[in-house]
Structure formats: structure tokens, C-alpha cells
Design brief:
The termini are far apart. It is built from 17 helices and 15 strands. By secondary structure, it is an alpha/beta fold. Strands 1, 2, 3, 4, 5 and 6 form a 6-stranded antiparallel beta sheet that branches.
Length: 467
């Protein structure tokens, strides 16, 4: 039978069309898919990051990113939170996938090592849920908060992401498999862990959570992953001190350098604390301090560092001088937010603070502080008056909002300071000096939500935030 050349031609056209379709499909869907197609499935699993600010002349600005853009992915990787941004932005070539006015766009830029990305976001967690604490500690400070404080102070966060980003202490009791895998994969180190006690039954009892008993296994697991931890033990009289503290120090020190430090904190109790709890007395504080310092000397000989560090409250309550800077082994950046070394920093920074206060002038200065630090500050005020001729007076403010057992300046509320001022205000020719540690909340706010400018409007004169 004679073959039909037209049929052959149709077959060739058909084969060509099929090949073209396969090439087109493979190229557009696998080699170079559109941003919408490439990320469609992944983006349903992650929350976009809303950009609130772009630093001028930054990497993000050069890429053409704008406030209001929703950052969906970076270098082909969808983003769960700002940690992912930090990890994926470490490459020299960056590709941003953003959503703007309902459209998805790709923008590129180069980044030199150490150059800031230049992005700020509406939330560090990109609207993913916060991992909250599931324990029920009798001494939980959040549970003791009175009404009227900043909203964030009522949130019991126990989130490993915020521990990595900000040094928040976590208990490790709510970590799931995905969290452990991510900590290992992205090497989220260091983390900050509230241990309180290493004995399984003691820790489980303190946290009222049977999952808390496995703390040493968890810390060993982190050490095996190469994750360093800074630990803390909040001591409750008669519960986890004495022999229990001996074991806690010994077992955590055995993990060094995986466990980098242990910070020992006296329990903080507000007027709303549970019945049966009490603070440490002066004599008890001295006994705990001596116990810690004995261990510190021993560990310094064995490890080359002191490892266990008491907070400043122990020294002040016991009437002991705080140690020199060298005693903190270069760990203060990791410990100072927990109340370790604040007094030493004040003392070492005094020449600069002295100059700042002298420049403020006035015939009289009123220095506000908490009742715990007031005796030491009065010594500096007397010396300042002799050296400058400016009369410096110290105003110890009792903490009536949280309770007078809370004595540190960092937990003073604006309301308590304002209530203490009418009889002691320095007057129009005087200067009011407020402690900077009062204003550590977002936007420089106190526990009860006021800024120094808010306080100035109430007082009728500026309050200078110095220390």
C-alpha cells in the first residue's frame, strides 16, 4: 500500500506540538515558574511578614521594597518568622518575593557581609501563634500582676524563638518534634532556660507539670546539638535552695560549656502572690550568697570561669559589696537583663553619669530609685554634692502597685513615682532624674504604660532619664 505523505506531515506536526507543550510546561513550572505558581502551595502554610519600615540606602531599599509590602519568601524559602529572614538573608545574592497591591513581585539585591538588611516588621513572629507557658508555678510573676499594667505583661510566653531573639527564659516543657528539629537545623544558640532545680521530682513539683522532670535529658540533648544555654534558678525559701541548690549547681556545671552560666535569682513576690510564699530575709540571703560564692571559687579553679552568678539583690540584701567586673567572666551581656551586674555597671560607668548629671545643672537634683538601691545611691549623691555644689537628694520610692517586697527600680511604676513626688518635687529651678530601667517597655514605657514625656506632662517639668 502506498504511504500518504500528508499523514506523515500531520504526525510530525502533532509530535512537534506535544514536544513544545512538554518543554513549555517543564520550563514554566519547574525551571522558571512564576512567583505565584512557585510559592502557591507553600504560602498557604505560612503567614506573610508585613514590612513596616525600610531603612534608607539599605539592602532592602536597593531591592525596591516598601513599607506595606508583604514579604512572602526570601531566596525561594517561605518565611515563618524573623529568624528565617536572618538565616536566608545571609547569602550574598538575595531574591525577595513580595505581595504589593494584590500582586506578587520578585525583587533582587546583593548584600555584602555584615551589611544590615534594613527591614522592620509588624511582628517578629509574622502572626504565627506565640508558644505560651503550660506550667503552673506558684511563684509565677506574671500570675502576680495587678490590673492596669501593659497588656504584654499578662502574657506567659514560653517560646524558644523569643528566647533566641531576646534572651527570654523558657522551660522547654512545650517543645514538639518540629521545634527540636528547627533548633538543630538553624542552630538557634544560645537559648535561655529556666531550670530552677535539676532533681526531677523537685522541678516537676515547682512547675506543677510532670513533663518538667526531664530537664537534664533535654539539656544534654541541646548540648549534643551544639546549642549553648544560659540557665537560671529562681529560689523559693525551703523549696529548691540548700541541698537542692547544691545539686542544681553541680549538675549544670558538669554540662559546661554546653551550659554557659547559671544565674541564681531570689523569688519575686508581689502583694498578689499565693499564700504561704515569702521572700528571703537578710540572714537567709547572706547564707545563699555564701553558698553560691563558695561554688563560684571552686568552679573557677576547675572550669576557668565562675559559672554560677548571684543577682545583685543577694548582695544588696546581705549588705555585701558587689564584685569587680572581672568576676562576671565576660558574661554580663547575657546576664544583665536578669539583674546580674547592674550595680557593677552603674559603679564603673559613674564618671560618665557624673558628667551627665553635672551638665543638667540646677540648684537641686532629685534622684528617683527603688528602696533596695537607695542606700548605695545616697553615698554617690553625697559625693556628687561635695564635688559639684549641686544638692543631690535621693527619693526611694516604695512600690505600692506591686507590693513593698518588690524593691528594685526596674519594677517601679509611673503611678508610684508620681504619687511620691508632690512633697518632694525639685521645683522649677531643680532637676528631676528618673532611672532608665523604669522605661524598658516598648516605646520606652513603664510597667503601667507611661513614657518619661507622659510623666513630665503630669509633673509640669521634664524628668531626665539618666540611669
Amino acid at each position: 500500500m502506498q504511504e500518504n505523505p500528508i499523514c506523515h506531515l500531520h504526525i510530525c506536526y502533532l509530535l512537534f506540538a506535544i514536544c513544545s507543550f512538554v518543554i513549555f510546561f517543564f520550563y514554566h513550572f519547574f525551571i522558571c515558574p512564576s512567583p505565584a505558581r512557585r510559592y502557591n502551595c507553600d504560602m498557604t502554610m505560612h503567614h506573610p511578614a508585613v514590612i513596616t519600615a525600610v531603612e534608607q540606602r539599605s539592602v532592602a531599599a536597593r531591592a525596591g521594597l516598601r513599607p506595606g509590602d508583604r514579604l512572602l519568601a526570601l531566596n525561594d524559602s517561605p518565611l515563618r518568622d524573623v529568624i528565617d529572614v536572618q538565616v536566608y538573608a545571609s547569602e550574598p545574592e538575595l531574591t525577595f518575593l513580595v505581595e504589593r497591591d494584590g500582586k506578587r513581585l520578585e525583587r533582587t539585591a546583593q548584600r555584602r557581609y555584615g551589611q544590615p538588611l534594613g527591614l522592620e516588621f509588624a511582628s517578629e513572629l509574622f502572626d504565627e501563634p506565640l508558644h505560651v507557658c503550660r506550667n503552673a508555678c506558684d511563684f509565677c510573676f506574671v500570675s502576680q500582676m495587678p490590673p492596669g499594667m501593659r497588656a504584654s505583661l499578662y502574657v506567659k510566653d514560653d517560646d524558644y524563638r523569643l528566647s533566641f531573639l531576646h534572651g527570654n527564659y523558657i522551660t522547654l516543657t512545650n517543645l514538639d518534634t518540629a521545634a527540636w528539629e528547627r533548633i538543630a537545623a538553624q542552630h538557634l544558640s544560645p537559648l535561655y532556660v529556666s531550670v530552677h532545680a535539676t532533681e526531677p521530682e523537685v522541678r516537676a513539683g515547682l512547675l506543677h507539670n510532670p513533663r518538667a522532670a526531664g530537664i537534664m535529658e533535654q539539656l544534654h540533648r541541646l548540648a549534643d546539638m551544639g546549642i549553648e544555654v544560659h540557665t537560671q534558678a529562681v529560689l523559693v525559701p525551703g523549696c529548691n535552695d540548700g541541698a537542692h541548690l547544691e545539686r542544681t549547681i553541680s549538675e549544670l556545671a558538669a554540662l559546661y560549656p554546653g551550659a554557659r552560666s547559671l544565674c541564681v535569682v531570689p523569688v519575686g513576690l508581689t502583694r498578689l502572690c499565693q499564700a504561704g510564699l515569702r521572700p528571703y530575709t537578710g540572714d537567709e540571703s547572706l547564707a545563699v550568697l555564701e553558698q553560691i560564692l563558695t561554688w563560684q571559687r571552686r568552679l573557677r579553679a576547675e572550669l576557668g570561669v565562675g559559672f554560677v552568678y548571684p543577682t545583685d539583690e543577694w548582695y544588696l540584701q546581705a549588705g555585701w559589696p558587689v564584685p569587680p567586673l572581672a568576676a562576671y567572666d565576660g558574661q554580663l551581656p547575657f546576664l544583665v537583663e536578669n539583674g546580674v551586674g547592674l550595680v557593677r555597671r552603674f559603679m564603673d560607668d559613674w564618671p560618665v553619669t557624673h558628667s551627665t548629671l553635672a551638665e543638667l545643672g540646677g540648684i537641686r537634683q532629685l534622684w528617683v530609685t527603688g528602696t533596695l538601691f537607695a542606700p548605695l545611691l545616697q553615698e554617690y549623691a553625697a559625693a556628687f554634692t561635695r564635688e559639684t555644689g549641686i544638692v543631690a537628694e535621693v527619693l526611694p520610692v516604695a512600690n505600692r502597685t506591686l507590693g513593698e517586697t518588690i524593691t528594685v527600680a526596674g519594677l517601679l511604676t509611673a503611678g508610684d513615682v508620681l504619687a511620691a513626688l508632690p512633697e518632694s518635687a525639685p521645683g522649677p529651678e531643680g532637676v528631676l532624674v528618673l532611672p532608665g530601667v523604669m522605661f524598658r517597655g516598648p516605646g520606652g514605657r513603664t510597667l503601667d504604660g507611661l513614657t518619661s514625656e507622659d510623666m513630665a506632662r503630669v509633673i509640669g517639668q521634664p524628668g531626665h532619664v539618666v540611669v
